[in-house]
Design goal:
- Strand 9 and strand 10 form a beta hairpin.
- The model has no long low-confidence stretch (mean pLDDT 83).
- The chain is an all-beta fold.
- The chain has 1 helix and 11 strands.
């Protein structure tokens, strides 16, 4: 808390230590009808600029609200150049779908790496939200990411 002679002001900081980390509130960046985001990577790191050993694992640590065929959420951990997590034929609204890591215990995450699909096809997210939680039910927005184009480039976000 910050104090002054005339008032008390509270400042709340978002914790970067949590068990669950989620990508959600996606907005389609494509102009063509039916285009939805494709991610080739979405990974969590303990240090700034993607340093240290990435958290999670591809078998049990990453889940999603929706998976399509072989383009499932487990591919996000490996970050291969092939299509990874694809929301083709997804039910309901795009913004309601998410991918998340369960780290098993609360861990401090200082950076995230992600890779969208190409902008020429329109299969990319123009924005999304990073959230975290310690119980998997109550989520806090950590950061809103907005970009103007896709591109098959691995990007790093420092939290």
């Amino acid at each position: 808390k910050l104090y002054s002679a005339s008032a008390t002001v509270s400042v709340e900081f978002i914790s970067l230590t949590a068990r669950y980390w989620r990508l959600t509130n996606q907005v389609n960046g494509g102009t063509g009808g039916g285009n939805v985001p494709i991610y080739s990577a979405w990974q969590l790191y303990p240090n700034l600029n993607g340093g240290g050993t990435k958290f999670g694992n591809s078998q049990t640590g990453v889940t999603a609200s929706y998976n399509y065929s072989n383009n499932n959420v487990q591919n996000l951990y490996t970050g291969s150049s092939a299509i990874a997590w694809y929301l083709y034929n997804h039910p309901s609204t795009l913004a309601s779908h998410w991918a998340q890591y369960d780290l098993g215990s609360a861990q401090e995450v200082l950076s995230i790496k992600y890779k969208n699909y190409t902008s020429t096809t329109g299969y990319y997210a123009s924005s999304f939200t990073i959230q975290n939680s310690n119980d998997g039910t109550n989520w806090a927005d950590v950061k809103v990411i907005t970009q103007t184009a896709g591109g098959h480039t691995l990007r790093t976000i420092n939290l």
